[in-house]
Each structure stands twice: as C-alpha cells, then as structure tokens.
C-alpha cells in the first residue's frame, strides 16, 4: 500500500507562486509514475503534470512554461512548482501514484488564485 500526503496549497495573487509537495510512504517500490491532478467545482478532474521513475515529465498545455514537476527519490517526494499563477488555476490539487498493481490518491490541497 502507498499513502500520499499533499501540502503547500493556499491563497495567492495572480502572477504569484506556490510549491506543492507530495510525500509517499508505504510500498513505494511499486510506484512507476506519479503526478498531479486538479479539479475545480463543477469541472472534471484533469491531469496537470506527471513524472515517471525514469524522470520523464509530461504537462498539460495550460500549464507548460509555468509549472514544473520534480522528484526527490531520497525523500520519496514529488513537487509541483507553480509560477505565474492565474485565476483559472484555482482548484483542489491531488497527488497520484501509479503502482504495479493499483493506484493511490492523496487527500488533495486547495489552491486559490485571487486578488
């Protein structure tokens, strides 16, 4: 089993920055991909960014050039550095882990971008 705990969300002004963290624990050897999803009220959940065990990254077109996903293997933690935030980035952000036999989700952390 894998447990995921997100942190770092909050209220920020447009153009500001936040850094989200997701710490994984448990059977972390089974994880082959991790990423961040987000969901705003009334909208479907969407993939924001992902990173594989080999370090390959993928981003949604809406965040390319503004967000950066990274991984610290020693800490079993992934990060999402969010710069130049826009009001449309407002959502609850969820950490995801794709495992060998199943998948895991964090509880989410709220990001609100407003003046």
Q: Characteristics of this structure?
A:
mainly beta, 115 residues, 4-stranded antiparallel β-sheet
Provide a descriptive summary of the structure in words:
- With 115 residues, the protein is mainly beta.
- The protein has no helices and 11 strands.
- Strands 2, 4, 5, 6, 9, 10 and 11 form a 7-stranded mixed β-sheet that branches.
- The model has no long low-confidence stretch (mean pLDDT 96).
Write the layout of secondary structure elements.
Blueprint: E1 2-7, E2 10-12, E3 18-26, E4 31-39, E5 46-52, E6 57-59, E7 67-72, E8 77-82, E9 91-99, E10 103-105, E11 109-113
Q: Rg from C-alpha positions?
A: 13 Å
Largest sheet: 7 strands, mixed
Element string (H = helix, E = strand)? EEEEEEEEEEE
List the uncertain runs: none
Mean of residue pLDDT? 96
Would you report the number of β strands?
11
- Which term fits the overall shape? globular
Terminal CA distance: 40 Å
- Output the structural class: mainly beta
């Amino acid at each position: 089993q894998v447990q995921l705990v997100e942190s770092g969300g909050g209220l920020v002004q447009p153009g500001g920055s936040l850094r989200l963290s997701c710490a994984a624990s448990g059977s972390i050897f089974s994880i082959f991909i991790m990423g961040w999803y987000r969901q705003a009220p009334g909208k479907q959940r969407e993939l924001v960014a992902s990173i594989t065990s080999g370090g390959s990254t993928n981003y949604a077109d809406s965040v390319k050039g503004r967000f950066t996903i990274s991984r610290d293997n020693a800490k079993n933690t992934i990060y999402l550095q969010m710069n130049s935030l826009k009001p449309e980035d407002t959502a609850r952000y969820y950490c995801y882990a794709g495992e060998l036999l199943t998948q895991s989700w964090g509880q989410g952390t709220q990001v609100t971008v407003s003046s």
